[in-house]
Amino acid sequence: MLGDFKHQLKIPRKFMECFKVKLLPWCTLIGPSKNKWKIRLSSTGDETSLKFSDGWEQFVSDNGVEEADSLVFRFVKDSSFEVTVFDMSGCEREGCHFSINSNSSSRRTSCRSTLHISHGSVAKEEVEICDSSSEDCSLWDEGEEETKDVSHVMEEEREGSSSEGKLPQSQKYFISNRRDLKPGEKKRASKMAECYRRSMKDNKRVFPVFQITMLPTHVYRGFNLTIPKNWAKKHMIKEPHEVELHVPGSIKGSWRVGCRWTKGGSIQCQLRSKWPLFVLENNLEEHDTCVFELIQKGKLDNVRTPIFNVHIFRTFDHIVPLTVSTHMV
User: Fold this and answer.
1) Nearest-5° angle of CA 234, CA 240, CA 245?
2) CA 62, 197, 313: angle at the middle one, nearest 5?
3) pLDDT digits (tens, 9 = 90+) for 250-272
4) What span, in angstroms and rounded, lies between the C-alpha atoms of 23 and 10?
């Protein structure tokens, strides 16, 4: 993005020469938030060239596009393009996942964009959220049956029960239904998390943070997450306690999870009790990355619970609910 990019953007001639589909006078740009902007395609005076004109300035403004950013346009169909925005360092601009069309009369959006915006989760396959004034406002829940199937597991985790007939944590497994990841997607979440941490420093966020990329023992079996040792020694209470995990923007808001120090050998600080519930309800998967931000340090003497903001970055935007099983696959 250079020069007068905020007001118009010329489509490269090479693209137009190779492009075999006739574009309509108005095209649709689909931003990282999955919201849409109508943009006029105007002639540049050269028969083989077109430019984004009317509506383009609004797209730039709503998505916070800045000079020296790089945009990737992927043709979908029906004169529509999916747009990804990268900053000068090559990191994807996270703020674009929050963007809305400020000129749109409809607030309708898809669950996939909402989930990405909040970094949270809903145990639904597909949901549409409509403005209350919309005549065709509807909720479609394809994942309802799966949600009912796991309700007993959620209840067990909430109660912390080990009563007869209920599975202990070590005999519980979550099975991924996510598609196989494409090359490069495995590192996508960690790169986004690193960019987010850099932005926290730039904005002078002073809370202590640590970053964990999810392993199978975090999210599919075993279910214990080890906090980096040096960080834990400096910031965590030295006795067994609970921590409160907040996922900014999520529907539920917070989860209480047990934290303990292991005994003997290599002493480690782990999140364990009720951690599976957090994994399940936020649909965490292998290679997803979480940034834990300690916004309130805990104290035993006045029973002050440690509170974390947990920022979730995913390898793949579309969430498919985990399956709960008593057998490892």
Assistant:
1) 75
2) 70
3) 888 799 999 999 886 678 999 99
4) 14
